[in-house]
Each structure stands twice: as structure tokens, then as C-alpha cells.
Specification:
581 residues; 23 helices; alpha/beta; 15 strands; flat; 4-stranded antiparallel beta sheet
């Protein structure tokens, strides 16, 4: 694994703990157990590259002033065989550590050695994770929420893969239930209207009124003519759905492919109904005592389950009462199962039948109230509810010229995912949708997304990559090729801009692990933007093509490491890394 700030912090922790023991053994400190301490990166480099409060947090334990404790610890610390050139006590008792040249050299050697794998780690230990995202109803075109959810879900999956998890991307196709009944009715009426006129049959207000429904009905009519007008409504609806639904799903798959998203599984809700898993799940809830019958329907004891979970979290009954929890219907009085029932069966399928260690769902913020009851349902069917995590995603507002944009210039209708991908470079869409944490409302600037300037964040990062490629190509034309450097040669990189750049390079594996732990790919986009900024600062301050051959080679080596790291991050985001712009 690459040399990272975490590895250095582990070294500091070990040094401090051993120094405490040595100081106690020599009688410099009283014999008692040291309290846990933290290691931080100071905001001001004057205070070192790392600093610890080990002396301060142990003042009470040792009954000594922090400064005296720090000096006792310092007397037992040595920089020999470490990544530090000096260690000092500052202020009331901080112990500050300053990195040596070997650290910076070894970071670059690690990056060169790991190549396209730099940034990856074994943190996830190969645990199986299912990331389900977008999962739009196949009854119409995908919208802006799906656009953000697609970029977010796919990049989250990639971050988890880089962090060492075994990840499966999944699209849950809602091809059963009420929305399909509504889809069938809408198609049926549009089909009849196609031949008899819009006045012949009225389309209910709560039906699907989009042009896509009219198009599918017309396509059906082109194949079958008016032959289905004389058939029963049930037969006609069935034929229309069997004709239109696969076309809609294929259109979704094409849109996702264009968006550079490839799912491992397109999971059909219908298979839960037809395969018996839905009935099995409901039977299991019955057996475990979590159902009851009322008004001809079968109900799930949501209040009972959530109350139990909330009390385990230390919530009072008064708090629980204010939530106004309600039980949920599993099977309606007409015998049809609810979407919630199918959702329980679906998550049981993921976590029990298919054996994922963790299921992560990316949902719109309007599903907030559904999280607790779905986690509770997992407990009710005997699955640890902590194996299900839900990432809530806020709305997207499309902006142009400072104004909210609702309609596509091309179609004059509400902007769909496909419209967006036709009008804006996919690199920009994928990158910019991952620049904010999912829980914040996002303004997507259409004007900025198409700009070829440093104001456009993805262009800015791509330009840094292309600029390095250009620098290397120009020097190669002069016969100056980047050679493999030794640790001693790379220790020449001791300018502040060089060290800041290398220090940032060293953080990539930990940034990716942090993004995986917090389900926040924005940490990765922010990292690569900062990397581009630090490179430009370095290049403006430190001339690469210098007469000192060893220094030139060290700086060329640094340029290659930055180029490859930018490429690795953009590859993770499925964004192009051009060699010229």
C-alpha cells in the first residue's frame, strides 16, 4: 500500500506510545495508563506537518503540567529511522512533527510503482456491496433527479471499488404495481384516441399525459393497426404494456450507457411477484408476528418495530409519540400487494438471498420518511437493519444566466436526462453533479458546464493533465526524457510548492477511503481540483527545464506523478483525461 498521511500518523502514534512507556520506566512520568490522543495536520506549517495533543489530554492522568509531560515524552523520541527531520514541543505542550525529504521522495516512488492502481486500497476487505441508484419508473423519460442520482450512484460505486469493496451496480425496474396499471390505462386511452380522436375517450387527470405515451401508442398502432380496438380492455392493456414497457426499458439502458453507466443487474420487480419471493416475505412477517388484519387488508406493525428501535437508541416515549408513527398496509383489501411489501421482499432478496454484506440505496430527499420503516422492516424479517444504508439526494435546479431553466431549447418541454446529455458535455455533467454532498440542493449552471475556461472545474482539471502532457512532450522533443529517479534524487524536491504538491498527492488513498466511509464522492472532485491548483502553483514557481540535470529529472518525475494521479481520479469519475486541449 502507498505511503499516506495515515501511515505517518500511525508511526507518530507508535512513537508517542513507546515514549510514554520509556518515560514512565525512567521515572520521568508517574506510572499510569496514558489517555487516548489525537494527531492533526496544523493549519500553519510553522507548527509542523503533524501535531498531537498527547501531553494536554494526559495532564489530569499524570497530574503534571502539559508542557512538562511533553518535554518528558520528547526526551524519549528519536527521528532515527522515521519520516521526521525534527520533533519539538510548542506552546502549552503540543508536540509537533516535521517531515523529512525521504517522506516526499517515497510518496513519489510509491505513485510511480503503483501506476494506475494508485489511490486504491484494501480498506473494504472485499465485502460485497450493492449500490442501487436511479431506478426510475419505466413509464416515462428520466428527469434531472435521475441525472444527479446516476452520476452520484455510479461514482459512489467507483469510490467503494477503489476502497477495496466488491461492488455491484443495480437498477430496480418498477415493472409491477399501481404505476404499471396507470401506464396500461394511459396507453389504452391514447391508443383508442389515435383512431377515434381525443374527444372519444377522456384521459383521467392522474394518468400519464406525456408525449412519450402518445408516441408508444402510435408505434403500437403502426404494428397492429386498429385490431385491438375490438378486443377486451384487459387483453388490450396487456398487449400495450408488453409492447411499450421493453421499449422504455431499452431507452433507459441506452441513456445510462450514454451517461457511461453500466449496471451489473437490471432487477425486475415483477420477478418478486411471479417467483414467490413476495409471498414468502409476507408469510415470514406473519410467522414472526408482525402482521394483523383490519378492514379486509393485511397490515405491518410498523409502530411496534420502530418503537422498539427508537427505545434502543434512548428515545423517550414522549419523543416517539410526537413522530405519529403509523402501521403500513402490505396487502390491500382487493388482494393486491403494496409497493412497500414488494420493497421489503426486494431488500430481503439483496441481503439474504444474494448475500450482500451491505445494500446502499440512493433515493430522492422526498423518501426521507421511508428510511426508518424500511430499516425496521429488515429487522422484522430477521436481517440486521444496519446492513441497509440510504443516501438521500436533494433536488437539482438548472440555471442559465442566473435564471431557473425548466424547458429544453430543443424540444420546448421539461428537460429530461437525455436532453441534458445532448446539450452539455458528459464529462461536465458527471463531474459537476459530484461537486456537492448529496444532501444539499444543487444549482447546475448550464453556462458554466459548457465553458472552456478555468472557471469550469472539470475543464480546469483536464487542462492541468493536458498541460503536463504538453510539458513532457516539449522536453522530449529537446531530447530530455523523464527517467526513473532514486530516493536521493527525489529528495532534491524541497521547495515549499513542491512539498505542498507531494503532500497532497499522498492523501489520495485516504481521501477515497473517506469518500467511501461517508458516501460522498464530492471529496474526490474537490481533491482533484486542489491537485490541479497546487500543480499550477508549483509550475509557476519552480522551473522544470533547469540546467541542474538531477533537479530537472526530479521535477519531471513529479510532473509524471501528478499527471498519473489526475488521470486516475478522472478515470474513477469516468471523465476523460485529454493529452491536449
Amino acid at each position: 500500500m502507498a505511503l499516506t498521511t495515515e501511515k505517518v500518523q500511525e508511526q507518530i502514534k507508535s512513537l508517542i506510545e513507546n515514549a510514554f512507556k520509556a518515560a514512565v520506566k525512567k521515572g520521568l512520568l508517574p506510572d499510569c495508563e496514558a489517555a487516548p490522543f489525537i494527531i492533526e495536520v496544523p493549519a500553519d506549517k510553522v507548527n509542523g506537518d503533524f501535531s498531537t495533543n498527547a501531553a494536554m489530554v494526559n495532564a489530569r492522568s499524570f497530574r503534571l503540567p502539559p508542557r512538562k509531560i511533553a518535554e518528558a515524552v520528547l526526551s524519549e523520541l528519536s527521528c532515527e529511522d522515521t519520516y521526521f527531520e525534527k520533533i519539538e514541543v510548542a506552546g502549552p505542550g503540543f508536540i509537533n512533527f516535521f517531515l523529512n525529504s525521504r517522506f516526499y521522495a517515497d510518496v513519489l516512488l510509491d505513485i510511480e510503482r503503483e501506476g494506475e492502481n494508485y489511490g486504491k486500497s484494501s480498506y473494504g476487505q472485499g465485502k460485497k456491496v450493492n449500490v442501487e441508484f436511479v431506478s426510475a419508473n419505466p413509464t416515462g423519460p428520466m428527469h434531472m433527479g435521475n441525472a444527479r442520482g446516476g452520476a452520484l450512484g455510479d461514482c459512489l460505486a467507483a469510490v467503494l471499488e477503489y476502497a477495496g469493496y466488491d461492488v455491484s451496480r443495480e437498477f430496480y425496474v418498477n415493472d409491477a404495481g399501481n404505476q404499471i396499471d396507470k401506464f396500461a390505462l394511459s396507453l389504452d386511452i391514447r391508443y383508442q384516441q389515435h383512431f377515434r380522436g381525443e374527444e372519444s375517450v377522456e384521459l383521467p387527470e392522474d394518468s400519464y399525459h406525456g408525449a412519450d405515451i402518445i408516441q408508444r401508442a402510435a408505434e403500437f398502432a403502426e404494428v397492429y393497426g386498429d385490431s385491438y380496438l375490438e378486443k377486451s380492455e384487459v387483453e388490450r392493456k396487456k398487449a400495450l404494456v408488453e409492447f411499450a414497457l421493453p421499449k422504455n426499458i431499452e431507452a433507459m439502458q441506452r441513456a445510462m450507457e450514454k451517461y457511461r453507466i453500466r449496471y451489473d443487474t437490471w432487477f425486475s420487480e415483477l420477478t418478486l411477484h411471479n417467483g414467490g419471493e413476495l409471498n414468502d416475505t409476507i408469510d415470514l412477517l406473519r410467522e414472526r408476528g408482525y402482521t394483523y388484519e383490519k378492514d379486509g387488508a393485511l397490515w405491518y406493525k410498523n409502530i411496534e418495530v420502530q418503537t422498539e428501535m427508537l427505545k434502543e437508541q434512548g428515545k423517550t416515549q414522549e419523543y416517539i409519540d410526537k413522530l405519529e408513527l403509523k402501521d403500513d398496509v402490505l396487502i390491500r383489501a382487493n388482494g393486491n400487494p403494496t409497493y412497500f411489501a414488494a420493497d421489503i421482499a426486494y431488500h430481503r432478496n439483496k441481503l439474504e438471498k444474494r448475500g450482500f454484506d451491505k445494500a446502499i440505496d440512493v433515493w430522492g430527499a422526498d423518501h426521507h420518511g421511508h428510511i426508518a420503516r424500511m430499516k425496521g422492516a429488515m429487522r422484522a424479517v430477521g436481517i440486521d437493519e444496519n446492513r441497509l444504508d440510504v443516501l438521500l439526494m436533494q433536488l437539482v435546479r438548472l440555471m442559465s444566466g442566473g435564471q431557473l431553466v425548466r424547458m429544453s431549447k430543443r424540444t420546448g418541454k421539461a428537460i429530461t436526462l437525455v436532453d441534458l446529455l445532448d446539450e452539455v458535455p458528459i464529462d461536465a455533467v458527471r463531474f459537476m453533479f459530484n461537486m456537492q454532498e448529496p444532501g444539499s440542493v444543487m444549482d447546475f449552471d448550464l453556462d458554466l458546464a459548457v465553458q472552456e475556461s478555468s472557471q469550469n472545474p472539470v475543464y480546469y482539471c483536464q487542462y492541468a493533465h493536458a498541460r503536463i502532457c504538453s510539458i513532457l512532450a516539449k522536453l522530449e522533443q529537446e531530447g530530455k526524457h523523464c527517467m526513473k529517479c532514486t530516493e536521493k534524487q527525489l529528495e532534491r524536491l524541497n521547495e515549499s510548492e513542491e512539498r505542498a504538491l507531494i503532500s497532497h498527492l499522498s492523501r489520495l488513498p485516504s481521501v477515497i477511503i473517506g469518500a467511501a466511509k461517508n458516501y460522498d464522492p464530492a471529496k474526490v472532485t474537490h481533491y482533484v481540483i486542489e491537485l490541479a491548483t497546487l500543480f499550477h502553483k508549483f509550475y509557476n514557481a519552480c522551473r522544470v527545464n533547469v540546467e541542474d540535470a538531477e533537479l530537472m529529472q526530479a521535477r519531471l518525475f513529479l510532473c509524471v506523478c501528478v499527471r498519473d494521479t489526475i488521470r486516475n481520479v478522472l478515470k474513477l469519475l469516468k471523465v476523460d483525461a485529454p493529452v491536449r486541449m
